[in-house]
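Methods: example folding runs. The two proteins below were folded one after another, and each record is reproduced exactly as written to the output file, sequence line first and structure-token line second.
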Amino acid sequence: MEKRNVVFVCIGTPRIAGDSLGPIVGDMLREKGVKAYVYGTRRRPITALNLHGYRKMLKTYHSRDLIIAIDATMGNLEDVGKLKVAEGGLRPAGAFRKNSGKLGDIGIMAIVGEREGDMLLQLKTADPAFISKLADDVVNLVSSVEY
């Protein structure tokens, strides 16, 4: 079955600096006018509280579409500031070992901090300029691909 449309699912909350990457990317993609569906913005974020509803909506309305999930994550110190692209989507809240199941056909993860110590504190105290730069990197990456 051929995929038809591109759907970006940008995960995170604007209330926590390090986790705001997804909603920032969602806003930037909409401002750029990408020819794709974009879910998850600062005004309407996709978080652990409403993820289940979005999963149902995606299954109902976008079952044949290419879903690209975007989220911030924690990683090794040497990888902080890098992007990882994974076939088969990503696990939202994976840094906190939540067993939420994979989301998307492709996952784009921006590594915003080290998977050590108090990860929530790292997310709360992340530099907003650093997160904005990573969001730019994500938007530049997805804008360079034709779909």
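Second run, written to the same file directly after the first:
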Amino acid sequence: MPQPSSRLPIIRLLLATLVVFALAASSCSKQLPTAVTPPPTGGPDEFATQVVVLLAPGVSPDSVAIAYGATVHEFDSESGLAALLPASGQTAIELAALLALDPRVVTSEQNGALVPAETRQKSFAFDDGLGSLQTTVEQPAADSLGLAVAHGVSTGAGVKVAVLDTGIDPTHPMIAGRIAASADFLNPANTTATDLSDGVDNDGNGAIDEAYGHGTHVAGIVMLTAPDAQLLVARVLDADGRGDVLAVAAGIRWALRNGARVINLSLGTLKGSDAIQDALEEAENANVVVVASAGNWGSDTPEEYPARSSHALAVAATDVTGQPASFTSYGGFVALAAPGIAVRSAYPGSAYRLWSGTSMSAPFVAGTAALLVSLHPGWGSEEVMDRLALTARPLRGLSVPQREKMGDGMLDTRAALLVDQVAGPALARSAAPPGTRRSR
């Protein structure tokens, strides 16, 4: 009779198989997902008492604050972004309105929180006991995208991909040696943007450190897709998934200064942001591809930002066969879909875990963009999206009107790269002329 220790791997395998089947079954509807009721998000937005301003070049935040009786709460000198606290008796909305009229101020707005979609809907990383580099590389999502074949054409060499998230585990085997630069926008005293946990429910939503490892997981998917790309890592979210407008806007501008060609934003807010929009416009003008997660609302409302920005490529989630995930957001703002159910990737402590959400779908697109930019250094977001749209696979189980709400289809990394091999350079350049993709 086998000893209990010898049966353990078999039991783990059976349990893991059941979990994966259960996760996959949640996406096998023959229609678009239905809306889900989000869990409580904790207390009021702690950032709402602040005003974020983008200052004109050379303007001192102190001089602006003094003029309005405000206090400088935070200042990022490299980007010219500052957070101000209003004077006693004045609201942040009132101060923001006054500052918007000041010629020294480029943008002015009430500060607000940004979080990963998984934090809102409480999607947690899962350890099935089978995690390894091999099972990560050989997982169904990688196979469905044809990553092994695509890597025969491009591995992303020479391209910097910025990941704005909770930070990373810099020693993880999938990440170590691939970091070009990192910065912590929550605690600038930290010399590296490291995934950190504190064991405290800081946002009061009933979960502790629910976003811990999120950035490591997202970065791992980028490296799985574009193994020779380099990472620019900006920590803009804490272990509970909380970040703010200033951190994200400053992180985008930092990424641009450090040579990013692709930026992944697996985070969002239900409000817009002038400061972030200004940074995203600068990114597009600099030929940088910005990819954002669409959200996990299981509906076409609400629309997350920056996913709905005209300067970002919004990514929805599917299973590996091309059927929409039950949780994915959808709508006219979505550009593309990619696997987002039980995706295996890096996790702090040299571990590997499964995670589900559009935050996992976005870095597959970001990594594929890096593969294309490595082949075509002059391409920007329009050219990259045109190629991805041209080679995307139709989604399964949906009518044509329903498909329109999921963008141009499911990402096909293999096809996107093979156009250059099969069609030849001349046809590859003309196969998807700039501006042909579906208007969003």
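Comment on the second run: Residues 1-30, 34-43, 425-440 have pLDDT under 50 and may be disordered.
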